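Chain and conformation:
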Amino acid sequence: MVIPSNDRACTRARGGTKTGRPRLTMRSGATTLISTDSSGEFMSTTLPEPFPVLEKPPIVEVVCGVQFDVMDLDPLILGVYWDNRRDEFPQRSLQPAVVEGAGFVLGNLPLRSVFVAADQVHVLQIQHDRFFMNWRAIGKAYPRFSNRGGGGGLMQHAIEEFGKLSTFCEKRFGAPITPKRAELTKIDVIEKGRHWRDLDHLRAIMPITGTFGGLQRGGNRQLALRFVETEEPRNLTVSVNSASTEQGGDLTSIRIETRAVVPVLEPGLEAAFVEANSSVNRAFFTLIGVEGHAVFGAAQGGG
């Protein structure tokens, strides 16, 4: 289960790199799609929104979050809420609360209540100032984030779950929850054997993985990249990390985590999630090359 990271220090990253190198373009509108030609040189292509629909997306987890003003939602109160939902979420636990930034906490540490559905796919996480709904790819096809094709996506599901919590709080405290910020995190894992054959194929799918190829003189390659852009009250974080079978072993997968935080303004929470989803998708498709579109079954249509 993924908890979106919260970092005290954020680096404002703008602009690109030297000509011929991949770059992240986080502006609204078109997305820059990076690919390589037959000689291995990088090329860029304009990718208009809406983004392609991936029939075989590498996504493994989605976290929809809502931040709100502090309320008296301690584990005892949330135990009452869980008792009302225990048939849907039979498993429960307490974890340390997600806290913005680093620092000392005087007194008792705040806690986060975690409710896990019977199928392990959906998870609710609730604390005094935050709500999260996780979707995990445990034997289930990705239901999409946006509402499309007559069926509700994860966004609608998350808004409905937040509404149920808000209704509970209104009955308990006399006032509903007022959302302040929405956050969305998507986790994608690109696996060797399933998505890519060798490092050359990986570079074609995700060109940024080949950026440091000229520096390698031997041994195995590992990758750890992080992009953070903060323009209050908005925040975008993109992390790209490799995994291997053992310390210093061959690459087995690339993990992409993208997280966007946006304010909840008029017309409300759904519009904030739509904005966050656009930011997250733009980051993902900036990292994925033309070959990645083929591997993941891209079709134009948004989502």
Observations:
- The chain is about 20% helix and 30% strand.
- The chain has two domains: 31-59+184-271+279-300, 70-99+107-177.
- The longest helix spans residues 154-173.
- Confidence is low (pLDDT under 50) at residues 5-35, 44-48.
